[in-house]
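tool=predict chain=A
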Amino acid sequence: MKQIQKAAELQAAVSEAKAKGLQIGLVPTMGALHEGHLSLIERALKENDLVVVSLFVNPIQFNNREDLEKYPRTIEADLELIEGLIAHADCRAKELLAFTPTVDEMYPDGEPTEIVYHFGPVEEVMEGPRRPGHFNGVAVVVRRLFDLSQPTRAYFGEKDYQQIAVIRALLEQMLPTTHYPLPTLVPCPIVRADDGLALSSRNKRLTPAARQMAPAINATLEQAAEMAEYEEVDDVKEWVLDTLASWHEVNECGEGLRFEPEYFEIVDAITLQPIADWTDADEHGAVGCIAVWLDGVRLIDIVKF
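tool=predict ok
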């Protein structure tokens, strides 16, 4: 593994690899790595000759300054995890580049507020109206990483399901004007803890009591998937929201813990538009997407129907 902090150095390494006809895998992350991230990296190592893993907390995708400040930054531990993975993984890749730029290196002309993407209906639901500017910030940093690494494949986890749809739309917009072959988007399954909680960097912010309670999100979604066999869409949505909203636990301080559901939507798996009937989803099926607050931490998850 080689750590790179300069964009020009990454571009030089990529140019050398492409001149040799090598295939490049990109795994964009914001660090605070967990087994979910490592599963993406491991897949990239198996499918490419060179892997680029970015570890960069992107400030322009945070619409909440407090969330940005609290986001865990564990760069040294992250690099150790990657080293350990390489040591034991079955790798096709001969080299992994850990790209750890500063904000000034990523945005040398300052945060690019003049770049505005429009993704239409896919960004107008769920996370879009609740996190204004978030997907634009994601698109800006992903476009920058694509330009620097020119990957053959780019790997994203399905927990951020709507983000994948936005990246798919970004690639469509890039196609007419980009001078290099665009990457294949590779969605990867969610990795869960033994109790079902979707792995997330934000899980580190959960108190012990909240962490013990959090798996109820996935358990509720799994029950919802079973209910879809015999219940209408609106009934399943209502049941999920009511079930989580009524959940109550007591933490170690004797204070009550409750889920605060922000939304639960059942949508077409590709268009992400809400469906009223199970037959409204096309051949790709439907997906349930949820955002829930628990003890001041915002958790998201999905279930496929």
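The domain at 2-188 is CATH 3.40.50.620 (Rossmann fold). The chain has two domains: 2-188, 201-300.
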